[in-house]
Amino acid sequence: MVIRFRIRDSLRFLSHAETLKVFQRACARAGIKIRYSQGFNPRPKLSLPLPRSVGVESEDDLLCIKAETSAQSADMERFKSRLSARLPDGCELLTVTVAGAKTSFQPCAATYVFGMQPQCVDERLRSRIKRLLGSQSLNIERRIDARGNIRNVDVRPFLKSIEFDDKIIVVECKISSAGSIRVEEILRLLELDVEHLAGPIRRTNVQWQSN
C-alpha cells in the first residue's frame, strides 16, 4: 500500500526513524498487520522513500507499507479511516492506494517554501539569489558521517530554480541517484538563519517515478 500524508506543527520535529515509529504504532492500534523481514532482527516493512529534514513540514509525503493481508482498492477508504483515527494531531492522511508488490518509488524533484520575515527581504537577498542562479558551480563542504568527515560537493546540478517575492522564497530541487541539495545547504547558500524565517520550512510538490 502507498500512503500520501502531511506532517505539520510539532510533528515536524520527528526524525525519519520516529516518523516510521508513529505509523508502526498507529497500524498496531488500528489492527493492521504489517509484514516483517526475516532473520535475527526482523523489521517492519515500512519505508519513507524521501527522508524529511527535522523541523521541516511536508505537504505531500509518501509511505510504503507491506501488509500481511492482500489489500483491494475497495478496502482503501476503510483502511484510511481506521489508520487516521490512530494517528496524532499534525499527521493527516491524504490518500491510500494499492501498489504492486515489487513497485518502488523514486523522488525526482521537490519544492521547498521559505516564508520570510519582512525586515529580511532586501536587495542583497535578491542579488544573492541572482548570483546563485547564474553560477556554473556551487561547491560546499558537506558532513558525510557521524565522525565529522567532510567532502566537497557541487550542489548546482541539484538546484532547478529559485523564485522570490516579498514574502516567500520557493526553491525547486532535483533529486537523483547522485543525491540532492539539503535544506540546511539552501539556507547556507542564501546566507539565511532560522530567525530570518516567518514560519516553518515546507516541502511541497514532490515528483515521483515508480518502477
What descriptive keywords fit this protein?
alpha+beta, Alpha-Beta Plaits, eight-stranded mixed beta sheet, two-stranded antiparallel sheet, 10 strands, 32% strand, globular
List the helices and strands and how they pair.
Blueprint: E1 2-7, H1 16-29, E2 46-47, E3 57-65, H2 76-84, E4 91-97, E5 105-115, H3 123-134, E6 139-143, E7 150-154, E8 159-164, E9 168-174, H4 183-190, E10 202-210
Parallel strand pairs: 3-10
Antiparallel strand pairs: 1-3, 1-4, 2-3, 5-9, 5-10, 6-7, 8-9
Please characterize this protein's 3D structure:
The protein has 211 residues and is α+β, with helices and mostly antiparallel strands. It folds into two domains: 2-97, Alpha-Beta Plaits; 105-210, Alpha-Beta Plaits (2-Layer Sandwich), CATH 3.30.70. Helix content is 20%, strand content 32%. The chain contains four helices and ten strands, in the order βαββαββαββββαβ. The longest helix has 14 residues, at 16-29. The protein is globular, with a radius of gyration of 19 Å.
